[in-house]
Design goal:
TIM Barrel, metal ion binding, 6-stranded parallel sheet, Aldolase_TIM, about 240 residues, zinc
Length: about 240
């Protein structure tokens, strides 16, 4: 991705939006140079994985009009993340004024989170994203979510996501527990079992309805910045 250009275009169309980029190890972006490219756009937030994972599965080929994957890809890999990498990436974000979104897949990864805190490389409130239902991560259950919350350093701002059909149950749990939630096609392409979603707006609208049904309003970009300890003024991108 051309992060500076993409970030600028998004900001131009939605100047108040809070933009989050990623340093995750993606297919086609495994090198350190590719992973750190996202920080060059100076987003307000950037994700940072808190540990390695073992992944096995299949990426299905892309059908027209999509391109870039003409055949199915069978995966049986390990996503490498080290203490040193997280320290280096967190230090770069700290110098650039970027808030790290600490992606936690199970409680064992809190060792890396606490290491960053002890070294002064992340500032409170700590932004922690729970990734649930993914291969070799935490099971997507209420008990696992509560355990992740109980073990987290304080003060933290939590968000939860569920992968695939686990998205809605975990979003519902997050709403009930009063934490933030994440939805979208990065984690799930189904609106419901057997039915593909029409796009991200459909998934977002569903979550908004769920939250409002039990009396939880959706935070504005300004409120989100306040919760995360960010400047109330949106970043400017050239």
């Amino acid at each position: 991705p051309d992060y500076p250009n993409d970030t600028s275009l998004i900001s131009a169309n939605s100047p108040h939006i809070l933009i989050t980029n990623t340093t995750a190890r993606l297919i086609g972006a495994e090198s350190e140079e590719a992973r750190l490219a996202s920080t060059e756009a100076n987003p307000e937030v950037c994700s940072l994985d808190m540990g390695p994972l073992a992944v096995r599965g299949k990426l299905k080929k892309r059908l027209p009009p999509l391109t870039g994957r003409p055949e199915d890809i069978e995966m049986d890999v390990a996503s490498r993340t080290t203490y040193g990498e997280t320290e280096k990436y967190a230090r770069i974000m700290l110098e650039k004024g970027i808030k790290p979104e600490l992606e936690v897949w199970h409680t064992g990864q809190y060792w890396l989170v606490r290491n960053l805190i002890e070294k002064g490389l992340v500032r409170p409130p700590y932004m922690i994203q729970f990734v649930m239902g993914f291969s070799s991560g935490a099971y997507a259950t209420p008990k696992e979510l509560l355990h992740l919350m109980d073990c987290a350093p304080k003060p933290s701002v939590f968000s939860v996501l569920g992968v695939g059909l686990l998205q809605v149950p975990m979003v519902a749990m997050g709403i009930l527990l009063g934490i933030n939630v994440r939805t979208g096609m990065e984690d799930n392409i189904l609106y419901k079992k057997g039915e593909l979603c029409t796009g991200n707006p459909q998934l977002v609208e569903k979550v908004v309805r769920m939250a409002r049904e039990i009396g939880r309003e959706i935070a504005t970009p300004k409120q989100a910045r306040q919760m995360l300890g960010l400047s109330e003024k949106p970043s400017q991108y050239d």
